[in-house]
Amino acid sequence: ISESAMPETRFLLESAQDPDVGNNSLQLYSISSNEYFHVYTGRRNDGRRYAELVLDRALDREQQAGVAFSITAVDGGNPPRSGTALIHVVLVDINDNIPVFTRSLYKVPVRENISQDTLVVVVSASDLDSGTNGEIAYSIVQNSKENFETFKINPETGQIRLKKPLDYEETKTYEIDVQATDGGGLSGHCKVEVQVEDVNDNVPEVIITSLTSMLSEAAPLNTVVALFNVARDLDIGSNRVQAYSVIPENEYFSVSYGSRSNGDKYVELVLEKSLDREEQAEMDFSLTAVDGGSPARSGTTQIHIEVLDVNDNAPVFSQDRYTSQVLEDTPEGSLVLSVLATDQDTGING
């Protein structure tokens, strides 16, 4: 740190890592007693804690060439656990300008389907010093393993590129701390906020919650044959499910969907035309949910309906009139005539 650093100057420290969550995760940083510094514990939007070293009084390299102390990271468990590291501050003589970024915050919208090594943003800093004290190297401060695995930066140009694919459904926003360090060891910082935008990369999932697979041919019109959960689609906005349909289309069933007066959404398969088992005893079709993406994606579930018989057909003789001649001496019990009737119904109804 330059001996010309002013009191209240802040220095971002590399974050401690704690895989626990909730109160058991990292909660506080502290440092051992010293004349020059205290530590500030900050909280990011995602809840992670970070540490900044804050200068309390002016430094003088000629009086003291360095300062050493320990920093401790403590979690909120019971009992609490902690980790400690040693910090050795070396005072640099009269490199009195730090790199300054053109912006303190870069906000960048990025579609989740961009390819690996795509340029995300270019950060830029300048330093009024000359020579090696004015030469700047860029780096990403490792405030999270996820950021470090997802993005990389060119130390000379400040170009930040993608190291691995993004997934909006997994992470919607990344906060990246970027550091610009000059040849004298002074550094400035900026924040890059990468906002991941959704693309239509998820297929709707249709789930049946209730299905009457055996339906009487006497079922009245508007009978609700099946109930469905509103199709599950991890995408957002117009990329979510927009419409439902029966495929192939048939004249017997239609899909009704919308919101009830209490706000609950529904999807129903409704009987539109009277059934006749004698015309069609079974039906197979699918219910399809289609989203509004481009190109659109769809999810399908198969439906099988068996039409149950009702006694709606009378027996019919094969002839309207039967005639037979019988000899007068025909013995009792002899076959005189055979008649035949049929019934289109099934089971006991037929």
TrEMBL record:
InterPro entries with a match to the protein in the record: Cadherin-like_dom, Cadherin-like_sf, Cadherin_CS, Protocadherin/Cadherin-CA
GO cellular component, one term: plasma membrane
Record-linked SMART domains: CA
Membrane topology note: Single-pass type I membrane protein
Domain Cadherin: 1-101, 102-206, 207-317
UniProt key word Glycoprotein: yes
Superkingdom classification of source: Eukaryota
Transmembrane segments: none
GO MF term (any one): calcium ion binding
Swiss-Prot/TrEMBL keywords: Calcium, Cell adhesion, Cell membrane, Glycoprotein, Membrane, Repeat, Signal, Transmembrane, Transmembrane helix
Location in the cell: Cell membrane
Alphabetical list of PROSITE patterns matching this protein: CADHERIN_1, CADHERIN_2
A biological-process GO annotation: homophilic cell adhesion via plasma membrane adhesion molecules
Protein name as it appears in the record: PCDB1 protein
